[in-house]
Design goal:
Number of domains: 2
CATH class of the largest domain: Alpha Beta
Largest sheet: 7 strands, mixed
Organism: Paenibacillus montanisoli
Protein name: Class I SAM-dependent RNA methyltransferase
CATH architecture of the largest domain: 3-Layer(aba) Sandwich
GO molecular function: RNA binding; rRNA (guanine-N2-)-methyltransferase activity; rRNA (guanine-N7-)-methyltransferase activity
InterPro entries: DNA_methylase_N6_adenine_CS, RlmKL-like_Mtase, RlmKL-like_Mtase_CS, RlmL_1st, SAM-dependent_MTases_sf, THUMP_dom
Number of strands: 14
Order of helices and strands: EHEEHEHEHEEHEHHEHEEHEHEE
Strand order of the largest sheet: 2-3-1-4-7-6-5
CATH superfamily of the largest domain: Vaccinia Virus protein VP39
Number of helices: 10
Shape: elongated
Strand content: 15-25%
Keywords: Methyltransferase, Transferase
CATH topology of the largest domain: Rossmann fold
Distance between the termini: 54 Å
Length: 387
């Protein structure tokens, strides 16, 4: 169990960000594919990846991959896997699936075949004809069919990794926590630089930035399906959590501010900030974007401007973006990063982005516009040594 193929699933466009996260965690043996990064690890790495990954959706175990042009091939390939090594006799093991460009197009039928094959394998091992699936342990099996090849995985995560545990209420069109973290990681922000979000909504970007600034593992406040699996000992989870707690750097000063014109959004943000433990570190203000005046130099504006559903009127949305551009003119040393659905963002804000990325917030296609300002000057020694 020390050489498993693990999969960190990634929202479209964020594969390279997830790969970099894994690299920083020490997982150099990896393969980047559309929507996922495959890497090698053992049982302890299931714990670490779930606790630490900020921009991935889930951590899966790749159980098998084989050609599956017929239901018989799908059945036999699934039955060949040693499912009893992982799944206890009375555990729940639902099957989910998807199919693309394959002869086996009926996903419900494929799910049924996989379930039947797993049951047959477990019947021969446990010597029983019926599985009650009622002990509370959950092993979600997924069958991915692509180009007549089947991949079988086990989901170690459960509810998606964006479920950090600090956000109970959300605004009308919430930004996913994983996407907010990606926006911060794709900027050049460092904890010694100011950060301002003038459309903070429920406070997700400031909170994710604070967690990055203090090196807080995003999974520390939640549980995962695989925590109840007998194959992964409590000791491994305790070690992973202890490592994460020891890595926190909560003595670093933070200059993070969020503002919004909507008082109800700020109430939700304040509750989330308090729940996340940053009530003293993150400042919240009720102010229109036209009156935004961030303090400090060489800061980063990182924001998800309201558009469509959040304002209810595209004209109001364009006005807010135009005001953001005007406010940024008075911040010559600041960088600006904005995720938006607007296709006319550069025209409206009056600037051409230095870089633009296509990203998806859930299923909503967006663009991430990056306007790079100057980097802070490096501190020079007062009396540099002569060569």
């Amino acid at each position: 169990m020390d050489n498993l193929q693990l999969i960190a699933t990634a929202p479209m466009g964020l594969e390279a960000v997830v790969a970099r996260e894994l690299m920083d965690l020490g997982y150099k043996d990896q393969k980047v594919e559309n929507g996922r990064v495959i890497f090698r690890g053992g049982l302890k790495d299931i714990c670490r990846a779930n606790l630490w990954l900020r921009t991935s959706d889930r951590v899966l175990i790749k159980m098998a991959e084989f050609p599956a042009r017929t239901f018989e091939e799908l059945f036999e390939g699934t039955k060949a896997v040693n499912w009893p090594d992982w799944i206890p006799e009375d555990a729940e093991f639902p099957v989910e699936g998807r199919s693309h460009k394959s002869q086996l197009t009926s996903v419900p039928a494929c799910q049924s075949i996989v379930k039947k094959a797993v049951v047959e394998k477990m019947k021969s091992s446990y010597g029983t004809e019926w599985f009650h699936e009622d002990n509370g342990q959950r092993f979600v099996i997924e069958v991915w069919l692509l180009n007549d090849n089947a991949m079988l995985t086990l989901d170690t995560t459960g509810p998606g990794l964006h479920k950090r545990g600090y956000r109970k209420l959300v605004t009308e069109a919430p930004l996913k926590e994983t996407m907010a973290a990606a926006m911060v990681l794709l900027s050049r922000w460092r904890p010694e630089r100011p950060l301002y979000d003038p459309f903070c909504g429920s406070g997700t970007i400031p909170i994710e930035a604070a967690m990055i600034g203090w090196n807080i593992a995003p999974g520390l406040r939640r549980t995962f399906n695989s925590e109840s699996w007998p194959i992964i000992s409590e000791e491994l989870w305790e070690q992973a959590r202890e490592e994460a707690f020891d890595s926190v750097k909560d003595d670093i000063p933070l200059q993070i501010t969020g503002s919004d014109i909507d008082p109800q959004a700020l109430e939700i943000a304040a509750a989330a900030v308090k729940k996340a433990g940053f009530a003293r570190e993150i400042k919240l203000q009720q102010v229109a974007v036209s009156r935004v005046k961030p303090e400090g130099d060489y800061g980063c504006i990182i924001t998800n401007p309201p558009y469509g559903a959040r304002l209810g009127d595209e004209d109001d949305a364009e006005k807010a973006i135009r005001q953001l551009g005007l406010s940024a003119l008075y911040l010559p040393t600041w960088s600006l990063f904005a995720l938006t659905q607007s296709r006319t963002f550069e025209e409206t804000i009056g600037r051409k982005a230095d870089k633009k990325r296509k990203l998806f917030n859930g299923r909503i296609e967006c663009a991430y516009y990056q306007f790079f300002g100057p980097l802070p000057p490096r501190n020079k020694p007062e009396n540099p040594a002569r060569p």
